[in-house]
Amino acid sequence: MAENEDILVNVENGVGVVTLNRPKAINSLNHVMVTGLADALTAWEHDDSVRAVLLTGAGERGLCAGGDVIALYHSAKAGDDNARTFWHDEYLLNAHIGRYSKPYVSLMDGIVMGGGVGVGAHGNIRVVTEKTKLGMPEVGIGFIPDVGGTYLLSRAPGLIGLHAALTGAPFSGADAIALGFADHFVPQADLAAFRDLVISDGPDAALAKYAIEPPASELLAQQHWIDQCYAANTVAEILENLRGHEAAEANAAADLIATRSPIALTVTLEAVRRAAKLPTLEDVLTQEFRVSMASHKSHDFVEGIRAQLVDKDRNPQWSPANLSDCTTADVDAYFVSADPDLTF
């Protein structure tokens, strides 16, 4: 396998090892990587010589910083079908990972954002470290959490998932375990040895030797004010609650939310609430596909990526500019059929 390929796939001692291999881009997912991982998982699932899967990212910075949103930006500008194809195949992959029949070990070290959550946090053995920075930062680019993110966010304790969704702020490995995005904590210094032991002796032996009790979750310790502030009906009321709270963290959350796309925030609130009522990951991914396809046609998706990643002026001009200008009809339009919808 050529080392310059975007995804490296091989079998070592009965373990299917997948390395996301775009370290300069913190392994951001492109279509080649999505199809490569999907094809490998399909082949290995019915291959008795493969007993487990191990997902890791090349380089020192993280497993995966998300999807290749610059490509999605160009697709939106051109009005072509590339984004639809990418999301369609990515969400099918997320669902496959969620129901995978063999041990699927994801090493969620360093940065794990957006699409990285999709390939990492639906596995059945999810490992984080003290260096993990996990998050769903979509509202900062005028987008809405996807890749099954709203499934996980809506099932986090209390309203912590809503806090993570609306701020878009990253959280720690300990928080990831508390929120249901991860299962096991391994010190980063032991990660290479953990990986080797998964390959030589299997996941159970590696976990028994290297997994430790995670540190206390800072987010879980703040659940009291989070649950109070985020219980409001609208984003505007949530902001009011946060600004009026004595906790410094609540005021900081308000400042962060105030920089985000008003329509993306409003749709995200609705998406997480609807996801809570949907029974399966597949049902939520079908909803997310609708929302993503609607986002693809929106002003804020193109503008948010432009401001953060293309021109990098960090000064997005959101439209609507204010939460008060986001109507119920605007929000409902994000949840109509993607025609054709995602099917499994």
Automatic annotation (TrEMBL):
Ranges of residues in domain Enoyl-CoA hydratase/isomerase: 15-335
Pfam family name, one: ECH_2
UniProtKB keywords: Hydrolase
Cellular component, GO annotation: cytosol
EC code: 3.1.2.4
Molecular-function GO term, any one: 3-hydroxyisobutyryl-CoA hydrolase activity
GO biological process: L-valine catabolic process
InterPro entries named in the record: ClpP/crotonase-like_dom_sf, ECH_dom, HIBYL-CoA-H
Domain of life according to the entry: Bacteria
Enzymatic reactions: 3-hydroxy-2-methylpropanoyl-CoA + H2O = 3-hydroxy-2-methylpropanoate + CoA + H(+)
PANTHER family linked to this entry: 3-HYDROXYISOBUTYRYL-COA HYDROLASE, MITOCHONDRIAL (PTHR43176:SF3), 3-HYDROXYISOBUTYRYL-COA HYDROLASE-RELATED (PTHR43176)
Protein name per Swiss-Prot or TrEMBL: 3-hydroxyisobutyryl-CoA hydrolase
Organism: Mycolicibacterium llatzerense
